[in-house]
């Protein structure tokens, strides 16, 4: 069943950045939805299978952002 998790994301300075983060995350296999909150510096993901958190972080870091799992 779908599960949700939240990432803290830093390096987003405008709505375009937030849109990029959303596109990067929803482009990953197993990520059904990503809701990015620019002001809160977070992304809430809905995943339909186990997506390795390090892979998510790597995708964002490769695009110039930083991320970590919010525990
Ligand atoms: Mo707007 Mo965010 O040009 O990099 S997309 S600052």
TrEMBL record:
Source organism, top-level taxon: Bacteria
Record CDD domains: HMA
Keyword terms of this UniProt record: Metal-binding
Name of the protein in its database record: Heavy metal-associated domain-containing protein
Gene3D superfamilies: 3.30.70.100
PROSITE patterns with a match to the protein in the record: HMA_1, HMA_2
Stored Pfam families: HMA (PF00403)
Residue ranges of domain HMA in the record: 3-68
């Amino acid at each position: 069943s779908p599960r949700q998790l939240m990432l803290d994301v830093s390096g987003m300075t405008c709505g375009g950045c937030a849109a990029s983060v959303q596109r990067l995350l929803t482009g990953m296999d197993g990520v059904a939805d990503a809701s990015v909150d620019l002001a809160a510096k977070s992304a809430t993901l809905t995943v339909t299978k186990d997506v390795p958190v390090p892979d998510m972080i790597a995708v964002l870091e490769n695009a110039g952002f930083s991320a970590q799992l919010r525990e």
